[in-house]
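Section 5.1 Outputs to date
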Amino acid sequence: MQIIPSIELASTAAIKTFQEGKLRELLAYLSAYSPYYRRQFKAAAIDVASIQSLEDLTLLPVTTKDDLQAFNDDFFCVPKTSIIDYATTSGTLGNPVTFGLTDGDLDRLAYNEMISFQCAGIQKGDVVQLMTTMDRRFMAGLAYFLGLRKLGAGVIRVGAGIPQLQWDSILKYQPKYLIGVPSFLLKLIEFAENNHIDYQQSSIRGVICIGETLRTADLKPNILAQRITDKWDIHLFSTYASTEMSAAFTECQYLQGGHHHPELIITEILDDDNREVAAGQIGELTVTTLGIEALPLLRFKTGDMVRKHQSDCGCGRTTYRIGPVEGRKQHMIKYKGTTLYPPAMHDLLASFDEIKLHLIEISNNDIGTDDILIRIVTTDSSPHFLNVIKDLFRAKLRVTPRIVFNDWEELQKIVFNPMNRKPTTFIDKRDHQHLV
């Protein structure tokens, strides 16, 4: 039985009124305790008491990742003695951005994950295998553990990678759900097939998928999701979150985008001029966090390009949903007249069983436009297979990138760099480097 917070069943008007009250509370808090936002309000001559509605958000300045990195300490609203946990996220200027969480923030994080997991159908007493790290100042793994604990589910903390260890744990403890990166599920399937494990008869019924998208822009299963479910009869639920917003958008059983939690976050989807786009149109997710004590954010531009879906959902929730991240704004590629984002290329490469590892590199060429190089490890290095890949790129994405074959030893050192918290499958060499 799902437990749905009452605000997520309220009318659109009631949710708006509720969020406007939370917004006024946040602005008063920032005015009292945030050195950064006090300075911003003063510089722009903003009387926060005049901000009464969600429409008034447009009167307030946006916050960028560069702002967070340049003035990190000034965003803190509490003394260091109140910080219980430290987390970091990559910054756009090279150094990581530090986030601190108070005891209250950790409680809020646990609540967020609890209701998100309930949205996907996890219940008290279920056993869940956690296939992501909890160390290296990574907020997500800790958040999942706290949410499952609050929900009353059992947690098996296996960590990332190592298919044999994952299967040993699955067969021994019989978890009902996994939490992990969807492409790793293909490695679990391959290991099971090579080692005569009957994965179809395993205890696994569903996977909460993180880090990679499962849906197309119109919310249909993408190639990666299809490859997994064609092999393994399990339910895949997409969840999207970030350290900056300490909130998640997780799919319910109807798989129509991640549901919004109005008690935790206000969202806007903005164009390049910071104007709201129409529902269903792509724009940059911009968030205002609610209920955070240590480092709340106002109109923070995440860099994630998404769409908002407002049609009714069969689960009964009246909240809108956020579709898959179709790309990062700074990772947009313009290639021979076509605009595309790395996730579309990742998904297309996932359609080939022969490709075991890949890395996409973007750079500037001699004439000042973007150049795409895809490095792959494959079981078929024939010219024919290379042409098959290029033909699919032409058909699906209308581009033909350069593709080169690499040895496993050469590429895995980059993709699975032990200093990084997740695999590096995209490198942007244009001006400065971004890793995802």
